[in-house]
Design brief:
about 350 residues, alpha/beta, QueA-like, Thrombin, subunit H, 2 domains, 9-stranded mixed β-sheet, globular
Length: about 350
């Protein structure tokens, strides 16, 4: 049994970062040796001191869509908020509706004086609904006009520049949340990494709302993991298999890249070019097959993500490092500081 309470820690609310730093790469970096538990305090741009040409850095190039929409129910004029979570194809989307009690099968929500409409076709638990979107034109352009960036519930400040909740290499629209470990990279830092002979490989995983859901089960192994869509290209699979064969170190940038790589890698096959869904749940006891090291942010207490990093570095090492980060007033969560676990 994996006790969820064993992954709890005390976090003063003032350490939850509400706004991004002016310069992405000036975040703090806690470097943790997963074997010894030793750690040191650095600045994110010092990541260069820990990388060599024997490393491959894997980044998630998903792009956050302005997925939070505020509209009115056509029948009654009641205010409804929709958060687009997952594209199901054929203009159907899995969404989070608030308040769900006002939504029925067949309800039509209008946004931007009818520029976009959404018809409810299915009701599920925890506020999740399926809607069919009705519009003329290109959805991404309509969302740019009408939508807001879907910041996590623990961020209460308004985001003045929506590009700051986007990695500088974001390419493929589809996420309801940013792969936040990547927010620390600047174009200049990525260029310097490449100049030092370190290979960059891009994969795509569209991040869903499940990222922020706490584990409610006392026994974490009973937690039902959310599914997310990911893609690995032929080029990426080839580069990663070559790296493995050459004994290079594979470093994932973020837990989303980690979940992609660990879902994709198959014993006896290696990395595969694929487009599929994953509901992989990585917690202590898991044997990593794909990655060797991880760049990540600090995660919520009792979350699947703190369990993932504990699987890589050990629960005691992680909780000791987190206690240090709290004492040293690191900034936590999406707009917060970073860790390098190696």
């Amino acid at each position: 049994m994996i006790k969820t309470e064993d992954y709890n820690y005390d976090l003063p609310e003032e350490l939850i970062a509400q706004t991004p730093l002016k310069n992405r790469s000036e975040s703090r970096l806690l470097v943790l040796d997963k074997n010894t538990g030793k750690y040191e305090d650095r600045i994110f741009k010092n990541i260069l001191d820990y990388l060599t040409p024997n490393d491959v850095l894997v980044l998630n190039d998903t792009k956050v869509i302005p997925a939070r929409l505020y509209g009115v129910k056509e029948e009654t004029g009641a205010a409804i908020e929709l958060l687009l979570l997952k594209d199901l194809g054929e203009n159907r989307w899995q969404t989070l509706a608030r308040p769900q009690r006002r939504v029925k099968i067949g309800s039509i929500i209008s946004f931007g004086d009818g520029l976009l409409k959404a018809k409810c076709v299915k009701l599920m638990e925890q506020g999740i609904c399926e809607f069919e979107l009705i519009y003329d034109g290109i959805l991404v352009e309509i969302l740019d006009k009408l939508g807001e960036m879907p910041l996590p519930p623990y961020i209460h400040e308004k985001l003045l520049d929506k590009d700051r909740y986007q990695t500088v290499y974001a390419k493929h629209p589809g996420s309801a949340a940013a792969p936040t470990a990547g927010l620390h990279f600047t174009p200049e830092l990525l260029e310097e990494i490449k100049n030092r002979g370190i290979q960059l490989v891009y994969v795509t995983l569209h991040v869903g709302l499940g990222t922020f859901r706490p584990v409610d089960e006392e026994d974490a192994e009973k937690h039902v993991m959310h599914t997310e869509y990911f893609e690995v290209s032929e080029e990426a699979a080839e580069a990663l298999n070559k790296a493995k064969a050459e004994g290079k170190r594979i470093i994932s940038v973020g837990t989303t890249s980690t979940r992609t790589l660990e879902s994709d890698y198959k014993d006896g096959v290696g990395f595969r070019a694929t487009c599929e869904n994953t509901n992989i749940f990585i917690y202590p006891g898991y044997k990593f097959k794909a990655i060797d090291a991880l760049i990540t942010n600090f995660h919520l207490p009792k979350s699947t993500l703190i369990m993932l990093v504990s699987a890589l570095a050990g629960r005691e090492n992680i909780l000791t490092a987190y206690k240090h980060a709290v004492e040293e007033k690191y900034r936590f969560f999406s707009f917060g500081d970073a860790m390098f676990i190696h």
